[in-house]
Amino acid sequence: MNEDIFFYYTSDLHSHFENWPKITQFLNNKKLERMREKQSYWIFDNGDHMDRVHPISEALLGQGNVALLNQAKYDFVTLGNNEGITLEHHDLFQLYDAAAFSVVCANLTSLDGVNPDWLKTSDQFETQSGIKIGIIGLTAPFHAFYDPLGWKVEDPYIGLERELIKLKDKTDIIILLSHLGINDDEWIADHYPAVDVIIGGHTHHLFRDGYKRNESILTAAGKYGHYVGEIILTWDHELQQLINKQAYATQIDHIEEDSETKQLIDKQSEIANIKLEQPITMLTKPLVVSWNEETELIKDLTKTLLDWTKADIAMLNTGLLLESLPEGLVTYADIHRICPHPINPCVVTLKGQELIEVIRASLTKFFTELEVQGFGFRGKVLGKMVYAGLEIKTEIDQDGEERLIEASWSSNPIDPKQTYTVATADMFTFGHLSPQIARSKSKRFFMPEFIRDLLVETLKNGR
Questions:
Q1: Domain 279-460 has what CATH class?
Q2: Distance CA 270, CA 274 (A)
Q3: CATH homologous superfamily of domain 2-272?
């Protein structure tokens, strides 16, 4: 006899709650279908369900996300980096206290040795017919961010190997919730054939159909909740083994909304709005924001960053501020609206020559007009780079590009061989945005402060 087992999953919602009522309705429809056919099913979330870019997640610190997962009757979730490194230790510690689902993450523990009761390295469950299934969760190992927040994030392969040893003789099927990214998922498939299914995320990739690699099937549902993943595993009870694996990602934009889910989101929005109406200051004049100009507000924010970090130099891109502030009362809701990014201050060490290269690159139209997605940035373009503690002289060349003539620190030209500490937004320590900063061997991240926390200080101090 053959038996089909069904799994449904979401990944990288990033608090795009506009899609959540459709997701819930899709899942409700699938549940009814499975129950009619008397088939087993489970529902997973693969991390980054929360993103503090949304006012609900900001005000409720992820508790609203957990309530939505509870209402949709999820069975298992793992942690993404947005759950892991954008909350203070005590907020993450209690994030899932009210969860009606199991939270699995094999490579995260508390540095003080006291882990939350909800945290499991792996879990096991069984179908009505007796098929035993193991579930493991792994999250991206951002060591430099987890450590200051009081968490230890382990090499995911070490955690995976440990859990596989525990599960391989106790289970028939092993499923991995991987918030590591596509490259790691492929490596795991090549080296750990005991993993039957890899549910992928973090890099926001989408597999409309399952991707079979070695003994595993890889599946991924993209980002923001436009797709829901479905996995169908066929078990042969006579052979006592899996004989088929299928995976799909279904677009749900056309699905009707679940009314109860929408009502819960509306209620959470009302609560969030009240919480975020905390007054910050009263402006006697408007403060203009422009991505291609050094306005007063971004210059003052950059000065605050310099003072906060006690670095030699500070630099911020104008694209971090999304809207101007009118004259009158400024609330925390305004701060969150104009600076929603989950981005922390960071200090890196650069040689003078590297600093000059950073400045030159930041002057180009390619840099200022670069549209960025990811790295915590929730704006549109990088914009112009603004400096504090550094004086630069530039000119416009015949091609219309701004060129660096001279850069000075403490009234002296930048010495190519001297070392400087440079404060900036942590987004520049990742990837290709600024190779010199990303390559720096000395990086200090200021946690748990976001850039918008420094914006609050800037406005309160009347800079």
A1: alpha beta
A2: 6
A3: Metallo-dependent phosphatases (3.60.21.10)
